[in-house]
Each structure stands twice: as structure tokens, then as C-alpha cells.
Design a protein that fits this description.
Blueprint (H helix, E strand, L loop, with lengths): L1 H16 L14 E12 L2 E10 L4 E10 L9 E11 L5 E19 L7 E14 L5 E16 L2 E16 L1
Antiparallel strand pairs: 1-2, 1-8, 2-3, 3-4, 4-5, 5-6, 6-7, 7-8
């Protein structure tokens, strides 16, 4: 319950950041969103991301995700839980918030590019969302599928990640 409240708070802050009015409506017009974002915090087993998106019905969105996972490089690397929260605004101005929980072992992180010689690394992140809620619905589901890119540079003889970007889709059944 605490995670759901935190997710709704994050979604509400996203709406405020977009300068959206506070009115609520029915479920979002879009069921699928193209999303782009950046990692703002991480440990070896948790990544936190935020960004923006555009829905298949023209909705604009601000989102936040926390992805719990096995250490990168584990075979397989499972998604072990986490949360997803999004605020959307339809082309007609209707506002909604969507939250969901990432299922335990409901996804994986697959290495696409290892990043030999300190080049950029890429991973495919997939996750199943459960307990998807909007301001007017509950019990939905969803899928998250993004490519994570670690941008790296050699600095003082060490390979350092200086930025991490995700791009892909999130889709929902409300």
C-alpha cells in the first residue's frame, strides 16, 4: 500500500511538472506509450528512471520507474520487482495517473552490447506489470520493454558510466 501511495505521489508530481491541471477523468485514452527517460539513481540491483512519453491516442505523459533486478551480467538477469507510475494528459486535456508493480521474475535484462574497450553498453529490459491502477480503474496489467544504454568514457584509466538512457514502450490493459 505504501508503494502505491508513493507511486501516486510521484505521478501527481509528474503532472505538476508538466503544468497540467489537477482534474481527473476516465482511464487514459492511450493503452500504449513510447517512452524515453534517464536513470537518476542506481545501485548494483536497483535502477530508478524518469522521463516522458507519447501515447498511441496522442496522450502526453511523465513517468517514473524503479526496477529491482539481479546484478547485471547474471545469467539470466531477472527483474525482481519494482514500481511504475505515470501521469498522462489526453489530446482533449483529460488527466489520469497510472501505477503498477513490476512482477517478481516477470521479466529479464538481456545484454545486447557488452561495451568492449569502454564503448557504450546496451541491455534489453522487459517486465510484466501487475496491479495496474488508474484514478478510475484497478486490477489491470501491462508490459514494459525498453533498451537501456549506458554511455561510457575512459577517465583516469577507468571506464566510467556518465549517463544511462532508456527508450521503448509501456502498454496497459486497464
Amino acid at each position: 500500500m505504501k508503494a502505491v501511495l508513493r507511486s501516486f505521489l510521484i505521478a501527481s508530481l509528474g503532472a505538476a511538472a508538466l503544468g497540467l491541471p489537477a482534474a481527473a477523468s476516465a482511464t487514459p485514452a492511450s493503452t500504449s506509450f513510447k517512452i524515453v527517460g534517464y536513470e537518476y539513481a542506481f545501485t548494483s540491483t536497483l535502477g530508478s528512471f524518469a522521463g516522458k512519453g507519447v501515447g498511441d491516442a496522442g496522450d502526453s505523459a511523465a513517468w517514473n520507474a524503479n526496477v529491482k533486478h539481479d546484478r547485471l551480467g547474471s545469467v539470466p538477469t531477472y527483474v525482481n520487482g519494482g514500481s511504475f507510475a505515470m501521469t498522462s494528459r489526453s489530446a482533449g486535456g483529460a488527466i489520469d495517473a497510472v501505477t503498477g508493480t513490476l512482477s517478481y521474475h516477470g521479466g529479464t535484462i538481456a545484454t545486447l552490447k557488452r561495451g568492449a574497450n569502454c564503448t557504450n553498453q546496451q541491455y534489453r529490459v522487459t517486465a510484466t506489470l501487475e496491479d495496474v491502477l488508474t484514478t478510475t480503474s484497478l486490477g489491470g496489467s501491462g508490459e514494459l520493454a525498453v533498451t537501456l544504454t549506458h554511455f561510457r568514457v575512459r577517465l583516469f584509466g577507468r571506464c566510467v558510466i556518465y549517463k544511462a538512457r532508456v527508450a521503448g514502450t509501456v502498454s496497459f490493459t486497464y
